[in-house]
Each structure stands twice: as C-alpha cells, then as structure tokens.
Amino acid sequence: MKKSPSIIAALALSGVVVYSASAQVGTLNARMDKAAEGLEKKVVTWRRDFHQHPELGNREFQTAAKVASHLQALGMEVKTGVGKTGVVALLKGGKPGPVVALRADMDGLPVTERGELAFKSEVRTEYNGQQTGTMHACGHDTHVAILMGVAEVMASVKNDLRGTVKFIFQPAEEGAPAGEEGGAKLMIKEGVLENPKVDAIFGLHINSQTEVGTLKYRPGATMAAVDTYAIKIKGKQTHGAAPWSGVDPIVTSAQVVMGLQTIVSRNVTLTDNAAVVTVGALHSGIRQNIIPEEASMIGTIRTFSPEAQQLVHRRISEIATNIAESAGAKADVTINVGCPVTYNDPKLTDQMVPTLEAVAGKNNLKITPASTGAEDFSFYQEKVPGFFFFLGGMKKGTKVEDAAPHHTPDFHIDEGGFVLGMKSLCRLTTDYMEFASKGVAVKELTASGTSGK
Ligand SMILES: [Zn+2]
Ligand SMILES: [Zn+2]
C-alpha cells in the first residue's frame, strides 16, 4: 500500500506516542496481571458457590445480590434490577476516555447435574410445569466469577484507566421463561448501552471442549442467528378407510418436511455460509382409522447473514403454503425472530487480536469455525462494535470426545483457565482505551513488545 506524505508524518508522530503510551501500558498490564493472579483463589471460590446455587433465567436473585454487593464493596456505582435481575456497575477511570462494556451472563439451565463434584448442584426447581434439577451446564457461573475478578482488578488500577468500564451482569441468556421478556434484548431496551453511551463491548464464553490456556475467536459471523418457526397444516378430517373424501394433513406434512430439506441444499449459497433448517416436532392424529383435521410442526432455523435469514424465512413460507395448496390443504406459517448473528466487528477484531495474542501467547490463540449455536451477546453487537471470544475450560490432555458438551448433565469446567479469562478482559479493556483515547492502533502498542509476554 502506498502511503501519502501526510500519513507517513502522522505515523511518525503516532510512533512517538506509541512509545510513551506503551511504557505506561506495560506497567499497567503488569499490575493487572499480578492482581488477576492474586485473585485466582477468590474467583474459584465464587465460581464454586455460584455452581452449587444455580438459578434459572430471570430468577437470578441470589446471584445478582452477591454480584451487586461485591461491586458496591469495590466502590462502584451499582444499579440492580436492570432487565429483571441484571446488575450494571460503572467504574470511572482517573483519565478521560471511552466507555468499554464487559458482559457476563448469570443464568443456569434445567439440567440435573451428574458427577461427584464437592460443589455439585442439588438444586431442584420447576420448569415448564416439570420438576427438574438446575445446573450451570453452560458455564455461566464461571463468567460471573471471572467478571467479578476483573472488576476487582480494574478497581485496583482505577486511577490509571483512560475511560470508564461498564460491568454488565446479564440474566436469561438462554432465553426468558415463556411469556417473559429477558436477556440482552431487555437490558438494551432498558438502556444498558446508554448513560454513559458504550463505545465497545467485550464478552467471553468458557468452552468445555477447548483446552485450558487456549483462546478461540472468529472475525465476522461467529455464532448463528436463531429463529423458530411453526407450521400448521389444515386438511379435512375423514374416515381412515376413505381418504378420498377428505384432505390428509399427515401426507401433506410429510411433503412439507421433505420440501423444507431443499432450502439449505438448493437455495442457500453454501459457499458463503452454512445454514440449518430443522423440524424438531411433528404432531398429528389420534387413532389408526381417522385421518385428522390438522398437523403441526415446529423447528429451528440457523443462519449467518441477514440475506440468508430472509431467504430461509421466505422459502419456508413459500414451500409450506404451496405444497399445502397443491394438496387442497392450507398452511399457516409463523416465524419468530430470535437472536441475531453473533458478529465480531471486523475492524474491532483486527484491532484486538494482538491483545489476545499477547495475553495467551501467539500459539494459543486460534480461529474457530463458525458455530450453529447462538448467543444473545449478538443484540449488543447490533448496537455497538463488539467482540466475543472463547476461553478454554477443558483439562489439558483430555480428548475432546471425552469432554461433555455444554447443556449436558456431565458438563465440566477445569478452573485452570480463569486467570487467562480475567487477563484477557482486562487487557482488551485497557488496550481499547489506549487505542481510542490516543488514536493509537492496538497493533502498534502490542507490537512494541512492552505489553506482550
Ligand atoms: Zn448455553
Ligand atoms: Zn452460554
């Protein structure tokens, strides 16, 4: 790339700034790293307490109370009850600069924990009318504990921070109970990204199948948009012995199910991104000799771009409606838009990758394939540039196939990665602040070698 004289002059100028800024960042980083290491035991203790006392989405009362009292003890301005049980705290640095938000989700899942951990959850509750165990089976207990640790680290270097940190402890990432609002969407609706306005947001997710010490990320579309659909096929009920006198919704549904399979295989541009259309339930009929009136199906849609999302929605409607019509039946199609794509802003990602390389070591930072799972962190990223990454939580030397996936009763997290998680969030925050308040590219800061290890 050719550089104009004015750009070269500006670069030379910024070079001077980089040098002095890096020296300061270097000592600040060293202090934060030391503080994070010193807090490891405390974070593990918090995590075990949260793990033993999980709460479902929008019911994180005790979790939120513990978080709030910790943040208050650190001298922060704390708001509770944001988006139901959410907690938001502000840490104003000693120097002016941007507002960086850090987010942790707090909810557990209706999963009954197996295994013999000393701090195993024995909590039982009712969910959707069923008795169930409750478990931190996605590792959100670790996110809460890590972010509490980060808050303590950052409070200890408060005077040297070039900006404000907004700590967001969010309820109901896995979805609010039926009929309730919740999660990131509700917190945003209640103004979590305003007053003061957030300039960038960072978040991490622990991963049970990634080794401790490893960080993973992906630029751009990282996790899928998730939408749900429901199709009701209305036929005409008749005797099972005389199908010609009715309209069979079961045979029609079977054709619709097969028709839906062509959306991904024949309509989606698969060289751009993957997509999924799943039929998750199909119900019809009551007796062997009755052709019923109706059939209904529900399913999930995963896409990685707004274009693919619109295309899939349109094709589901067209296929269901037209197949039903061709059979003399009628299809009612409802599509519920859920979470958007978890999309790592490419510019922000580019700026922050060197920070993660510096914290984890270059060989321990990996690019991960896009995941068809979803994450409601995506709602924040729709509003402000955001970066979401994954933290290793699998014991070193474990085979991936031996590590239980998220949302299962044997889900397990090795606690050895918590310090790396804390350091990552701390450094992303301070490097972003340096970048934003001085106009210095983070790449240059870390490349100077004073902030890396
Ligand atoms: Zn989950
Ligand atoms: Zn999760």
From TrEMBL:
Q: How is the cofactor bound?
A: The Mn(2+) ion enhances activity.
Pfam families in UniProt? M20_dimer, Peptidase_M20
- GO molecular function ontology, one term from the record: metal ion binding
Q: Which UniProt keywords apply?
A: Hydrolase, Manganese, Metal-binding, Signal
Listed GO biological process terms: diaminopimelate biosynthetic process
Annotated residues for binding of Mn(2+): 138, 140, 174, 205, 407
Query: Which positions make up the signal peptide?
Result: 1-23
Q: Is Hydrolase a UniProt keyword of this protein?
A: yes
Q: Which InterPro entries match?
A: Amidohydrolase, Bact_exopeptidase_dim_dom, Peptidase_M20, Peptidase_M20_dimer
> Locate the Peptidase M20 dimerisation domain: which residues?
228-321
Reading the lineage from the top rank, the first entry is: Bacteria
Enumerate the cofactors the protein uses: Mn(2+)
What the entry lists under PANTHER family is as follows: METALLOPEPTIDASE, PUTATIVE (AFU_ORTHOLOGUE AFUA_6G09600)-RELATED, PEPTIDASE M20 FAMILY MEMBER
Name the UniProt record assigns to this protein: Amidohydrolase
Q: Which organism is it from?
A: Spirosoma arboris
Taxonomic lineage is: Bacteria, Pseudomonadati, Bacteroidota, Cytophagia, Cytophagales
